[in-house]
Write a structure and sequence with these properties.
It holds the Pfam family U-box. One of its GO terms (molecular function) is ubiquitin-protein transferase activity. Keywords: Repeat, WD repeat. This is U-box domain-containing protein. This protein is mainly β. It has 3 domains: about 35-270, YVTN repeat-like/Quinoprotein amine dehydrogenase (Methylamine Dehydrogenase, Chain H, 7 Propeller), CATH 2.130.10.10; about 355-380 and about 735-915, Herpes Virus-1 (2-Layer Sandwich); about 410-610 and about 620-655, Methylamine Dehydrogenase, Chain H (7 Propeller). Helix content is about 10%, strand content about 40%. It has a 4-stranded antiparallel β-sheet with strand order 1-28-27-26, with no helix packed on it. Strands 2-3-4-5 form a 4-stranded antiparallel β-sheet, with no helix packed on it. Strands 6-7-8-9 form a 4-stranded antiparallel β-sheet, covered by helices on one side. A hairpin with a 4-residue loop joins strand 49 (about 630-635) and strand 50 (about 640-650). Helix 3 packs antiparallel against helix 4.
Length: about 900
């Protein structure tokens, strides 16, 4: 392809001349077929049926060289991999139904996105910053906020397997096509607002619905970067091209086009666009062992080159952004790189970048100090640990400190107090440890062997002086922590009338918790559906009281921090709250707190102050076999309690097995082989995912605990291993969730941020504070969203915001040459929001100072970071996530401030360039 300095003239853009592709390199490494691949600059990611995800870097003179790999990226085969636009992050999907987000520099995992009960993930794509779309075999489309690790929406879009997913119109639309030959188009922002309850409770009406788009089903889809075109490929060996239909300047659906491109003789397995507009190029891969290149010819595309790429069928195709090369992947376990012009192994793939060209642009406002910290060659700050080195985790601030196989059976429960740790195991043993800060390890104190069957519960009593254990032998035991001597044995009473068992003989004990008050109360949960309660102030072997209302086994129990409430959960999904003796009465009953396998674990938040609660308010966390973590706000009243569901966290695929609090931090474990930690907001109004730990294939995580002020996360697994991780000392930066995302996703909060950053607080703005308040109030009154800013006429928006009537600015003054400064600014900002994307010619001819140093792409929203360099806002936010903290991409030094400020001067230069 004839290109000069990566620039394409208007004449050549009308009809690109594609030379015969020539083979540059054959890349091998996967032990089974290469299932997916994607490239970003000089980086290539590949995935295979061998479960391995590989990262390759371009070496001048040598070609692609493997620099990192994850041997168990997914428990089964890797099915999809895509780079984010920033080039700092990449995502992968697998047959295990999980999606993962990785650092694009070292392939370190950053987020594990596991939807409960998810079928195999077959397709994924990024839709603007942080939004990741994942299509599954059961026809479900999941939308994830990749930075927060939160599922935004779950849409049962199709009956067939969802193999084709794309986000046309710059992420405003969602295109899905399934193996039942059905294609649908949705408003993606509406899908995100629908939440995770599915179609039945929050129906989302498609903007377009077409049947029989591909005979025998669709297999792949992709959209151009400007979003004006999309393509789908299917089992019928056809490619169909769709154009965005626009009404009032805003995309309403994909109803135009759909014309067929024929040429392949077998199913089309992959599609990839490069360029856009008249300079669009489409690559396709097929089971017929060929790849094809397609170029616009009038209103349609025509095939210009056929590449007989591999001796076996093709599974994936990659097309470079600058159209200099193409990569094909095959069932023959190899990838092949094809030059589309004059590219050779001795050329560079990335534009040479002089860092100083991006420094101090416009002015030096916002430049701050850097932390003196060791960095590596890729610019990632090196973490230090108390003992050992950081190991793989989903957050670089999460440091693996210690691990050991402490039991020969599953670890069922973990209790902590001060520096003490106790574990209960299916091997019939309980163990007590002490954490050594100096040595960075757990030191064994005692092995407690008084149970004949599995020990299922453990807890500390009397300010850590006594440890409580309970097991399936129907007993609970109290032990002296200092000596390891058994102090007392409590035998569970026989099943009573109303209990689940109804037979003589105490049932196995599944739960045991002690109150933290001076006069300790011990509550057990049994297989018989009983919850007996003892007071340690009494020597009576019989329980003080027995709660016997349960219809199934009591699987968990717990105490509020003031011991005025106790709670139980059952295998039938029941949740009960009681008043302890002397009242000893039922205060609240929820028969379906959790579905499926019932309530597996519960825990009260330890301190009301940490969650800004009232004196008689509590937050109760429950975990269920339905894979949900639920937070309940419990308010004690004079005659009872008021309970309401405050928050639901839907992240543990396969069932959530344990929850434990430490201050405002909540740790949870699940059968998806992961432990998670959230920072919970005031009154449980929200939760930010702080860390994720995956234990790989060693076994599901059954128990978790939090230890210490700078919390340590303890995770016990099905295999009997116990691991300790260091959590970040500081809570994560709670940024605006919409920062760096496309305007079509902005809620009212996003619009208010835009008004503040671009209108009222711009340098030189003459708007007074009360006028700024008026603008934000108008935004709230009109329920203004980003979609409204994009799809409403500018004159109507100016009137909506009061620039005519209330602020007394005459919109017609512009005809007299005396237009108000604030009106000019508001109109220009609205025009900038509604402007179409730059043409491909503008993109390729932009001066270097108008490009982001991370992606080398034309800036759209340039911001200063504290290092003095200017980046695209979305890109630097992705970089912070990839690096694990606020680290300068240029210097590699840690930034003491992660604040980003708009570079107003460079924005003006950018607009002048695009207008010219």
């Amino acid at each position: 392809m004839r290109l000069q300095s990566n620039r394409i003239t208007e004449e050549s853009a009308a009809m690109l001349e594609i030379e015969e592709p020539t083979l540059l390199q054959t890349v091998r490494g996967h032990r089974s077929e290469v299932t997916c691949a994607d490239a970003s600059g000089a980086r290539l990611v590949t995935g295979g049926g061998d479960r391995v995800l590989r990262l390759w870097a371009w070496e001048r003179g040598a070609g692609w060289d493997e620099v990192a790999r994850s041997s168990d990226a997914h428990r089964y085969g890797v099915t999809a991999a895509r780079w984010a636009a920033s080039g700092a992050l990449l995502a992968s999907g697998g047959v295990d139904g999980v999606a993962r987000v990785w650092s694009g520099r070292d392939l370190m995992p950053r987020r594990l996105l596991a939807a409960p009960g998810a079928a195999a993930a077959r397709a994924l794509c990024w839709a603007t910053r942080a939004r990741l779309l994942v299509g599954h075999d059961d026809g479900v489309l999941c939308v994830w906020h990749a930075a927060r690790g939160v599922q935004l929406a779950r849409l049962h879009a199709h009956e067939g397997a969802l193999h084709a997913v794309a986000a046309p119109a710059r992420g405003a639309l969602l295109l899905t096509a399934c193996t039942h030959s059905v294609l649908k188009v949705f408003d993606l922002a509406e899908v995100c607002r629908s939440g995770c309850n599915g179609v039945s409770s929050s129906p989302v009406v498609p903007l377009a619905w077409m049947d029989n788009v591909h005979d025998l089903g669709a297999l792949c889809a992709d959209a151009t970067e400007d979003g004006n075109m999309a393509a789908t490929g299917g089992q019928d060996a056809l490619i169909r091209v769709w154009h965005t239909r626009v009404e009032d300047g805003w995309p309403r659906g994909l109803l135009r086009g759909g014309y067929r491109l024929s040429g392949h003789s077998a199913a089309v397995t992959a599609l990839r666009w490069a360029g856009w507009g008249e300079a669009a190029l489409l690559a396709s891969a097929s089971l017929d062992r060929t790849a094809r290149l397609w170029l616009p010819a009038g209103a349609q595309l025509h095939c210009v080159r056929v590449v007989h790429a591999h001796p076996r069928y093709l599974t994936c195709v990659v097309l470079a952004h600058d159209m200099r090369y193409m990569i094909t992947g095959s069932n023959d376990r190899s990838l092949r790189m094809w030059s589309l012009g004059s590219l050779t192994l001795n050329d560079e793939l990335e534009i040479p970048c002089e860092a100083l060209a991006h420094f101090g642009l416009g002015d030096l406002k916002g430049i701050g100090p850097l932390d003196d910290e060791v960095i590596d060659e890729d610019g990632i700050a090196t973490q230090t640990t108390v003992a050992g080195r950081p190991e793989g985790s989903d957050h670089t601030c999460l440091q693996h400190l210690w691990s050991s196989t402490t039991h020969s059976g599953a670890i069922n429960d973990i209790a902590t107090h001060g520096d003490l740790v106790a574990t209960a195991s299916s091997d019939g043993l309980a163990r007590v440890f002490r954490w050594s800060e100096e040595r960075g390890e757990l030191q064994a104190l005692h092995e407690l062997a008084a149970h004949e069957y599995p020990v299922l519960a453990v807890d500390f009593v009397a300010a850590g002086a006594v440890v409580l254990t309970a097991g399936l032998d129907g007993r609970a035991c109290l032990w002296d922590v200092e000596t390891g001597v058994q102090l007392r044995s409590l035998c569970v009473p026989a099943g009573e009338e109303g209990g689940a068992g109804g037979e003589a003989g105490g049932g196995g004990v599944r739960a045991a918790r002690a109150s933290s008050t001076r006069s300790a109360l011990i509550l057990l949960g049994t297989d018989d559906g009983l919850a007996p309660l003892w007071s340690l102030d009494e020597d009576n072997p019989q329980p003080l009281h027995v709660y016997s209302e349960h219809s199934a086994a009591v699987t968990c129990c717990g105490w509020s921090c003031d011991a005025r409430l106790c709670s139980t959960g059952s295998a039938a999904g029941e949740l009960r709250l009681y008043a302890p003796p002397p009242a000893a009465r039922l205060l609240h009953y929820d028969p379906q707190a959790h579905d499926l396998e019932g309530v597996q674990s519960l825990d009260f938040a330890p301190s009301p102050s940490s969650l800004e609660l009232g004196e008689r308010q509590h937050v109760l966390a429950t975990a269920g076999g339905d894979s949900l973590i639920k937070l309940w706000l419990v308010s004690q009243l004079e005659d009872g309690v008021a309970v309401r569901a405050a928050l639901t966290l839907e992240l543990h695929g396969g069932g959530a097995s344990c929850v434990r609090w430490a201050g405002a931090l909540l740790a949870a474990a699940g059968a998806d082989h992961a432990a998670r930690v959230w920072a919970v907001g005031a009154r449980a109004r929200g939760a930010v995912l702080l860390a994720v730990v995956s234990v790989g294939s060693a076994g599901g995580v059954l128990a978790v605990g939090l230890l210490g002020a700078a919390p340590l996360l303890l995770a016990g697994s099905l295999s009997g291993s116990l691991a300790v991780w260091q959590l970040p000392a500081e809570l994560p930066d709670e940024r605006d969730d919409e920062e760096g995302t496309a305007p079509c996703f902005w809620t009212q909060e996003g619009v208010r941020r835009w008004l503040r950053d671009c209108i009222s607080r711009v340098p030189g703005s003459e708007l007074r504070r009360n006028e700024e308040t008026f603008l934000t109030q108008r935004c709230q009154q009109m329920e203004m969203t980003g979609f409204m800013l994009l799809s409403t006429s500018i004159d109507s928006l100016l009137e909506t915001f009061g620039f005519v009537s209330v602020l007394r600015i005459d919109i017609n003054k512009s005809e007299e040459g005396s237009e108000d400064v604030e009106l000019v600014r508001m109109r220009e900002e609205l025009q900038w929001l509604q402007a179409p994307p730059p043409s491909y010619q503008q993109e390729t001819s932009a001066p270097h100072c108008l490009r982001c140093p991370l992606s080398h792409r034309l800036l759209r929203e340039p911001v200063f970071a504290a290092d003095g360099y200017t980046y695209e806002r979305a890109n630097i936010l992705d970089w912070f996530l990839a690096a694990g903290s606020a680290v300068s991409p240029v210097s590699g030094r840690r930034l003491l401030s992660s604040t980003l400020q708009l570079n107003y001067a460079l924005r003006d230069q950018l607009r002048d360039f695009l207008r010219s």
